[in-house]
């Protein structure tokens, strides 16, 4: 598919996104001079326990982590998976581990959210106890519940895209759904998955930047087919331009490094990605 035709950009008038309310702000993590936080999506270290992932994220130089459901916690919890329904026993230990390594939990996902307020509250209570900035999800069918609880808890809902043909691969789908709704609702912009879907991530970001709440940041070798992740700056994605476009629109969320390659030995590459984001921030503060 030709790139020119692969992305149907949102109409220019929709870029204003008539909205209500105000988005949540980052928790007290170390924010870069450019205004964003650098976190590691723990899926990057899915072959390790959560406690190991926190240690590795800190070793790479990140100051935040994006947690995901079901990751084995480790330590005294052994193989027990991270579970919002077990917040009272798990959250204190996770926060203590994060504090030990100078890391803050920032987002949680990608996670399902039931279209039931009582059940969804379990997730939002968990997120509030962790002090999260956002919940990453693809549960567009639970939009009314998500909007209500996002406002009540002051937690962003970041709608994530997987590649074509998944439900939210086209940014128009989320854009039309959240237009006119509260500012807590926005995008988790996975730029690698847009590339895998034949779209130029920079052009997508230009069309939706005011509603981007977080990133799953990647670099790739192609914008016509799937390729594995590469250290930032060594692929073909226009990362400086993407960061500049987000900054132009006041982006002040978290950028999660999601590195889905070399699963057992990616720490040096993740550290390189952290360094790239820090350097860009210092040069463009």
UniProtKB/TrEMBL annotation:
Residues 55-264 form the Xylose isomerase-like TIM barrel domain. Pfam families: AP_endonuc_2 (PF01261). Keywords: Isomerase, Signal. The keyword Nuclease does not apply. Residues 1-24 form the signal peptide. It comes from the Bacteria. InterPro entries: IolE/XylAMocC-like, Xyl_isomerase-like_sf, Xyl_isomerase-like_TIM-brl. GO terms for molecular function: isomerase activity. The keyword Flavoprotein does not apply. This is Sugar phosphate isomerase/epimerase.
């Amino acid at each position: 598919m030709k790139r020119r035709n692969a992305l149907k950009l949102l109409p220019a008038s929709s870029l204003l996104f008539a909205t209500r309310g105000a988005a949540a702000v980052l928790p007290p993590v170390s924010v870069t001079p450019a205004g964003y936080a650098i976190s590691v999506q723990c899926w990057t270290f899915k072959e390790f326990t959560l406690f190991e992932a926190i240690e590795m994220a800190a070793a790479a130089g990140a100051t935040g982590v994006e947690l995901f459901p079901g990751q084995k916690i480790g330590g005294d919890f052994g193989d027990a998976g991270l579970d919002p329904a077990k917040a009272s026993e798990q959250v204190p230990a996770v926060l203590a581990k994060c504090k030990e390594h100078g890391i803050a939990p920032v987002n949680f996902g990608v996670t399902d959210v039931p279209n039931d307020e009582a059940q969804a509250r379990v997730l939002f209570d968990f997120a509030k106890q962790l002090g999260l900035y956002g919940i990453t999800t693809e549960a567009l069918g639970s939009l009314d519940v998500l909007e209500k609880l996002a406002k009540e808890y002051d937690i962003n809902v970041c709608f994530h895209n997987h590649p074509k043909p998944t439900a939210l691969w086209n940014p128009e789908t989320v854009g039309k759904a959240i237009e006119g709704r509260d500012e807590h609702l926005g995008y988790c912009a996975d730029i690698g998955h847009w590339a895998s879907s034949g779209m130029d991530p920079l052009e997508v970001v230009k069309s939706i930047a005011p509603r981007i709440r977080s990133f799953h940041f990647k670099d790739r070798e192609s914008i016509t087919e799937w390729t594995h992740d590469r250290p930032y700056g060594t692929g073909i994605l226009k990362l400086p331009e993407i960061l500049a476009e987000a900054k132009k629109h006041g982006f002040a969320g978290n950028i999660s490094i999601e590195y889905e390659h070399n699963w057992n030995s990616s720490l040096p590459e993740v550290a390189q990605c952290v360094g790239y984001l820090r350097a860009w921030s210092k040069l463009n503060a």
